[in-house]
Request: fold
Amino acid sequence: MPSPRAASPVLVVGDAVTFRAAGDGVVELRINDDEGCLHDNEGELTVSVEVTPGP
Reply:
């Protein structure tokens, strides 16, 4: 059986994104950088996640 992560879509956020999850699960956020390139990152990132009840 494939891992749930492998089956999950990747969303390019840019300045903002709104989406409806297909079900319960984990949301992972990642900067689009290679593993060896994280050491030179500067600044900050603000993330807001709003969970609303389904229908």
The longest helix spans residues 4-7. The chain is about 5% helix and 0% strand. Residues 1-36 form one domain.
